Amino acid sequence: xxxxxxxxxxxxxxxxxxxxxxxxxxxxxxxxxxxxxxxxxxxxxxxxxxxxxxxxxxxxxxxxxxxxxxxxxxxxxxxxxxxxxxxxxxxxxxxxxxxxxxxxxxxxxxxxxxxxxxxxxxxxxxxxxxxxxxxxxxxxxxxxxxxxxxxxxxxxxxxxxxxxxxxxxxxxxxxxxxxxxxxxxxxxxxxxxxxxxxxxxxxxxxxxxxxxxxxxxxxxxxxxxxxxxxxxxxxxxxxxxxxxxxxxxxxxxxxxxxxxxxxxxxxxxxxxxxxxxxxxxxxxxxxxxxxxxxxxxxxxxxxxxxxxxxxxxxxxxxxxxxxxxxxxxxxxxxxxxxx
Amino acid sequence: xxxxxxxxxxxxxxxxxxxxxxxxxxxxxxxxxxxxxxxxxxxxxxxxxxxxxxxxxxxxxxxxxxxxxxxxxxxxxxxxxxxxxxxxxxxxxxxxxxxxxxxxxxxxxxxxxxxxxxxxxxxxxxxxxxxxxxxxxxxxxxxxxxxxxxxxxxxxxxxxxxxxxxxxxxxxxxxxxxxxxxxxxxxxxxxxxxxxxxxxxxxxxxxxxxxxxxxxxxxxxxxxxxxxxxxxxxxxxxxxxxxxxxxxxxxxxxxxxxxxxxxxxxxxxxxxxxxxxxxxxxxxxxxxxxxxxxxxxxxxxxxxxxxxxxxxxxxxxxxxxxxxxxxxxxxxxxxxxxxxxxxxxxxxxxxxxxxxxxxxxxxxxxxxxxxxxxxxxxxxxxxxxxxxxxxxxxxxxxxxxxxxxxxxxxxxxxxxxxxxxxxxxxxxxxxxxxxxxxxxxxxxxxxxxxxxxxxxxxxxxxxxxxxxxxxxxxxxxxxxxxxxxxxxxxxxxxxxxxxxxxxxxxxxxxxxxxxxxxxxxxxxxxxxxxxxxxxxxxxxxxxxxxxxxxxxxxxxxxxxxxxxxxxxxxxxxxxxxxxxxxxxxxxxxxxxxxxxxxxxxxxxxxxxxxxxxxxxxxxxxxxxxxxxxxxxxxxxxxxxxxxxxxxxxxxxxxxxxxxxxxxxxxxxxxxxxxxxxxxxxxxxxxxxxxxxxxxxxxxxxxxxxxxxxxxxxxxxxxxxxxxxxxxxxxxxxxxxxxxxxxxxxxxxxxxxxxxxxxxxxxxxxxxxxxxxxxxxxxxxxxxxxxxxxxxxxxxx
Lengths: 339, 796
What we know:
Chain A is α/β, with parallel strands linked by helices. Chain A has helices at 14-19, 35-38, 45-58, 63-75, 88-99, 104-110, 129-135, 157-169, 181-185, 189-203, 220-232, 251-268, 283-296, 313-327, and strands spanning 77-80, 121-125, 143-146, 174-178, 207-211, 237-239, 273-275, 309-311. Chain B is of the alpha/beta class. Helices cover 40% and strands 18% of the residues of chain B.
C-alpha cells in the first residue's frame, strides 16, 4: 500500500513482547491524521484474494501442533452474545463457559490443566456488563462491551460517548466501538478521525476495539483506509464487523487489515490488535486466521493481547476437534456443554 | 525424537507449524509394482530399451533413487514412430466426437488419480505437494477438458483443416505433467498421433499417465512414450517420418532443433527460455506486489521459463519494496516437498543446483548486493534459498542470463518509457508482469512489452483457454486456446502454381527490345526502394532482366547484404505504421490498389513480357488481393478469452515487426503483393526481394507506393540474387520473420540461419497458385501476427 513504509524484519524478541499483555506503555497513542495520504491508499482486490486463497493451502498444522494451535485459538476468543433476547441467565451461562471452555476430561487427556486455558474476554451489550463482571469475578477474564449505538452507530454522538463512559464505569475493561460508515463512504477522514479519537478519549484506561463494519465499506481500499484512520486515532484493536452486516469477517478483509497493522507498526512502533468477528464458526477457519496472523504479522498476534475472535459457536467446534484429537473419534456438538 | 507435548508446544515462545507430510504410499506402491524398472510405452505395450540401458531417476529432496528408466536409442524412437504412424490413419479417421470422448476420458482419468499423480510428481521433480496438488494437476485436467472441447469442435471451428500427422514432442523437467498435457492434449484433439519424450530427470509421471491413458481405452500407438536423455530427443527430432516437432525447453536446445529440422519440412513449435520482467510502478499495491513476486520467482523453485526474474521497480519505492520483500522471504519455508507447509521444494538435480550456485557467486563477484533469509535450507537433498539481488545493472550477467532458480534480480527505473526499455532489453520475450493501480498505465505498457503473455497485477496465471508462448528468442507457436490448436492442424491445401514455362534456350545474349523510334531507349534502370527513397545499390551493379523469349526487358539494381542492412534499418524506422489504426492502414492499401489500377495496362504488358502469362488477369487478381487485405486490416481482431479467474485475457494480434520476404518467382506482381499486403496490413514493415527472374513488376511499384501514402520504410524492395539476399535476412537478428519462396535448398538455408534469433519462418506452401481463392486470408494473417495474451484480473 502506498505511502506506508515496510515493516522491518521481525525481531527475535517478538515472543517476549507478546507476553507483555496489556502493558500500558505498549498502547497505541495514535498519531496526527494525514488525510491526504488516506485517499491514495489502494488495494488490489484480485491480488489480495489470490493471497488469501493460498493462506490455508500453503500452511497447515497437524496432530499435537494442531491441538496446541486450537488451544491458543480458545485463548483468543471474545466469547460473545449480542442478541436482542439476551437475559441475565444467558449471559451467566456464557460466562460459566468462558471460565471452563473445555470439558475437564479433554483438558486432562490433553495434559494441559496447568495452562489454565480461558477465553480472551466475554463480550456483551452494555446492559449486561455488570452481570458479566459479577459472573467472571476472580477469573481474570475481562468483560468487553459493544458500545456507541451498536451496531449501526448512528445515535447522537453525546449518547454514544456517554454509553462508553457508562460501560467503563460498570466494569468493562474493553470497549468495542462502531465507526460511522458514512465517513468512509464519503471520504470524510477528518470526521472519522475525530469520531474515533473522541471514543478513545472516552474509553480512558479501557482498551478500544474499533469496529469498521467492513461488510458495509464496499471496497478493500476503503477497508484499508478506515483501518489506518482508526489506528491513527488511537484504536487498540481494529475489528472487522459487528456480526450484524450481511458480510462478516472474510479472510481477504482480514488480510488487508493485517497488512495495514504491519505498516502502521513499522511507521509508529506500535502494535495494534486485530479482531475478526462474525462468521467464524469452525476450528478450521480459526486455524486459517491464526496462520494468517503468523504469516502476515508474527507470533505476537497469536496471543489475546493482539488477536481476538469475536465468536460463540466457534468454541464448540474447537472442543469437538480437540476431543477428536484425544479419542480419534469424531465428536458431536451435544457432547459439549453449550455456550 | 520424542514427540512434543501439547502443553510444551502451546507454551513455547513460537507456535510452530510442525510436520505435515502427505503420504507417499500409493506412489511408492506404483513404483514397487513396476519393480522400480521402467520401459518405453510403445504401441500400447511396455517395450524394453533395445540396448538394455537404463538410468536412475532420483528424488531430489533426498537424492535417493526412485527407479530405473529406459534410455531410448534411435531404434527405440523408430519403433515408437512406427507405432504412431500405424495408429495414425484410424485415429485421424475417427469422428471429432469420438476423439472428444477419448480426451474427456483422459481428463477424468487425471481427476480420478489426482492425488497419486501429484505425489508422484513431487517425488520425481522435488516441487512442493501444494503446487502439484493445487496447480499442476488441476491445470492438467483442465487442459484435457478444454481440448476435449476442441476435439468435438474441430471440424466446425477449423473447417477444411486436417491433422499434421505423427508429432514428436519433447518436454522439460520443470512441469513434467503439465507440459505433457500442453503437448498431447491439442495434438490428440486435432487428430495427430504422438511420440513424447519426457525430460531425463522426470520421466515417471509421463509413464504413469500413459499407463492410465491406456487403461482408459486410448488406442495403442496413439500416445507413445520414449524415455531417455538428449540423444533420444535428437533421434526423435531427426526421424524422417515425424511431421512435426513440438519442444519446450532451453533456447539453446531450441536452436539446435531449429537447425536440425531445417529443410526437412517438419513443422515446428518451440517454447523456450525467458528472463521475464516484473514491472512495479509507484502506485501499485506493494503488499500485493510482494505476493506477486512470491508467485513469480519462488514458484517451483524459480524453475519456470516464464518466471518473473527481473524485478524492475520505480526508483522512489525501491527501498520500500526491498524491505517488504526481505521480510516476506524470511517467512518462506524451504524443505521436504511432500510437507504440506512448504513454499519451496528441492532443485531438480545437483547439476542444476550447481548452476544456480555458480551464477549467484558470479553475481556477488560482479558487485551486486545479495540477500538471503537468515534460516538455513535442509542439508540433505538439493535445496536453495530464495535469493534477492539489488543494485544490479542491466549489463550484469545475472540480469541477462536465465538462472532458472529462486533468484531475483532487481533494478530501478524512473519513467514508464524507461521501464519498457529495460523490460525489452533482453533477447527473450516470453512473459511479463505489470503492477499499477492505474488502468491507463497498465494498458499502455502491456502492448509495449515484447512478450507473449503479460499479466497485469498478477503473475504465472495459466489457463487452457489462453494461449501461452513467446516472442523473440523465447520461441514461437502457442499452447492453449484456439491459437494453440493451429499448431497441430494443417490448413486446407492450395494447388501448386502450374508448372512454369521453361526458360529460353540458353547461351545467347539477350536481344535489346525494339524501339519504335530511331535511337536507343531512354535508360530506365530501377534502383532499390529503401526508406521510401529510390537508392543506388551499395555495390553499384545491375542485373539483366529478360523476357521469356530472351529479349532484354531492362535491368535492375543488384542488391547486396549492405542494402539489406539499410533496408532493415529503414523498416525499423517506420515506427508509426504499427500504431496506425487498421482503418488508416486499410486506406493506404486501397490507395495502392487505386494507383495500381490506374496503371493496369502498363503493368499487364510488363508482366506479359516477363512471364508470357496473362498480365491483365494478374493485375486484376492483384487489385482484388489488395482489397482483401485492406478489408482485413481493420477486421483481424483478437479475442477475449474467458480464463478461470475473475477477469479477462485479451488475445491481441500484434504485428511480428520487421518481416523479410523472398517473393515467388511466378506471378511476379500477384505473388509479391500476396505476401507483402497481409504483412503490412497487420502493421509490419517488410523488406521484400521480388521475383529474381521477373522483378520489374515490383520495381514498377516504387512509384505506385510513393504516390499511395505508404509511410517511408514500411515497404522496402531490394532486387538481386534471391537466395543470397534471403540468407542475409534470415541471419539478421533484428528481423522477426522470414517468408521464403524458392528452392528447397534455399528454404533449408533460411531455416537454419533463422536459429540465430529464433525468428519465425515460412517456407512451405508459398509456391502455390496465387490465383486460387484460398491463396489469401487468415493463414497469411496468422503468419503476419503473433498473439499476445494480456491477463487482466479485475474487481474493486
